[in-house]
Amino acid sequence: MSDYHQHAGTFRIGGEIEINRLGYGGMQLTGQGVWGDAPDRDNAKKVLRAAVEAGVNFIDTADSYGPHTNETLIADALSPYPKDLLIATKGGFERTGPNQWRVNGHPEHIRQAIDGSLKRLKKDVIDLWQLHRVDSRFPVEETLGPVVDAVKAGKIRYVGLSEVDVNQVKQAEKTIPIVSVQNLYNLGNRRWEDVLDYTLARGMAFIPWYPLASGPEKLKHKISGIAEKHQATTAQIALAWLLQRAPNILLIPGTSSLKHLEENLQGGDIRLSEADFKALS
């Protein structure tokens, strides 16, 4: 596979753990509706191992993927883990069925989520634990109470948030240091532009989920022209644009296909001209 990571560059999570900016998201390695185990578990393990062999050292998962099956799969495929591999997970959702997601920020649920993830991932420490969603039923400091305890106990190293606005990040920072934010962001959806700018100014990582979306119809013609010029796919151009958008962006495109994995990783090789970047922006 392509030695993509030297081109994509690196970022230091929490200013300490250096990782390659082009990572991998595990959500696709579940059943339909992010429910149940990977339909082809052997292939799923091959994809995870191929990603790590190609230089990926940042993998994102969550206790709600499956639920629980994704974390177990990652452990089965990759444990004992390479020393430089950072596995990030998330907690704060309950699952009742395919495509069913219920936010649960109750401190006891969060406590159980952390301990469950440690067990399933076969890890003593979670390098990056992220609150999957803020639950409006509880003050965020209450929800994060067990996270503070877990950090003090050495169970969690760093803490991140997901799908939050700037005020929610600031509120959480009063309780615990925040090193990353994972929000929906891609070529076609720039809703969280202000959050990206805030994380950049604060030295936090910004992790777009759904990074491969290539945007509204009006962008399609521009993207296809630029992709043709680079002999690339539209997905690769979408990833290349994100990598150039800000140096704190970490990408976690997911796939259950070895071919698509290689294509995604090669997206890190593409350098857009200033004109192309502006045309897409």
Tell me about this structure:
This protein has 12 helices and 11 strands. It is globular and about 55 Å long. The chain has 281 residues and is an alpha/beta fold. Helix 3 links the parallel strand 4 and strand 5. Helix 2 crosses helix 3 and helix 9 packs across helix 10. The protein has a single domain, classed as NADP-dependent oxidoreductase domain (TIM Barrel, Alpha-Beta Barrel), CATH 3.20.20. The chain has a 7-stranded parallel beta sheet, with helices on one face. Strands 1-2 form a two-stranded antiparallel sheet. A two-stranded antiparallel ribbon has the order 6-7. It starts with a helix and ends with a helix. The model has no long low-confidence stretch (mean pLDDT 95). Keywords: Oxidoreductase. GO terms for molecular function: oxidoreductase activity. It comes from Dyadobacter jiangsuensis. This is Aryl-alcohol dehydrogenase-like predicted oxidoreductase.
Share of helix, binned = 40-55%
Number of domains: 1
Mean pLDDT: 95
Order of helices and strands: HEEEHEHEEEHEHHEHEHEHHHH
Instruction: Characterize the biggest β-sheet.
Output: 7 strands, parallel
At CATH level 2, the architecture is Alpha-Beta Barrel
Shape verdict: globular
CATH level-1 class: Alpha Beta
What are the low-pLDDT stretches, counting only 5+ consecutive residues below 50? none
CATH topology value? TIM Barrel
The span between the termini is: 29 Å
